[in-house]
Amino acid sequence: MKSANKHESRESWLKNAAQLLRPHFADCGYDLPNNMRFAIAFPSTGRKGKRVGELWHASTSADGSYELFIRADISEPADVLGVLVHELVHAVLPIEAGHGKPYKDAALKIGLEGKMRHAMPGALLKAKLADIAETLGPLPHARLNIERGATDKGPADRPKKQGTRLLKAVCTAPGCGYTVRITAKWVAEIGPPLCPRHDVLTVDSPSDEIEEQAEAGAAAETV
Q1: Cα–Cα nearest to 192, from 169, 213, 215, 216
Q2: What does the alpha-carbon distance between residue 65 and residue 106 come to, in Å, rounded to a whole number?
Q3: Interatomic CA distance for residues 68 and 52, integer angstroms
Q4: What value, to the nearest 5°, has the Cα angle with vertex 11 and ends 45 and 3?
Q5: Cα–Cα distance between 55 and 217 in angstroms, integer?
Q6: Is the Cβ–Cβ distance between 149 and 156 less than 8 Å?
Q7: Which of 120, 148, 176 is the C-terminal boundary of a domain?
Q8: Vertex 204: Cα angle to 212 and 223 (nearest 5)
Q9: pLDDT tens per residue, range 107-151
Q10: How far apart are alpha carbons 121 and 108 in whole angstroms?
Q11: Which of 154, 158, 180, 153 minimizes the C-alpha distance to 167?
């Protein structure tokens, strides 16, 4: 039988997890800050990034709070707690520490192992986190299928399907400049369109069109 949730929100679960981890960090010589917020959401690298967690230092916050994020497609409590510990190590170090030697020294004391950028709990810490997960009860969160997008039609940042390219057809008669757009299909099957006052319009080739758009884009970037 599935246990009842002890926490109404993911944030409450994470906050209490950090509280239960506080004595362990203290025993290792590190005091966790009190001014921390927690969320299961998107890190700043977004859907396509490989970052599974992120700690924004208090110096980056308008009210001096630490902001800790865990990626929304992670849902197993053991995995969530592993990411939480990794990010909490960042919270006890200066912002410039990164994953360098100060981080490695602290991470190893806390019980993380592996390459520091992706360091996760070793066997002893895993056992401690399993006890913490048992104490916390179920995590009120389910894996978010972010690859399906918010509307279940795919992610918003996927490349848009290329539509039919329209070629530009221009009248070259002096002083005219009459212009229309037409698909390459109709030019090939029927022929180029006509100017109401003059003769056949000159149709750009697809490569000319691409080059013209590129030049326009470059000009816009210089403004």
Answers
A1: 169
A2: 21
A3: 11
A4: 120
A5: 37
A6: yes
A7: 148
A8: 15
A9: 999 999 999 999 999 999 999 999 999 999 999 998 888 777 667
A10: 9
A11: 180
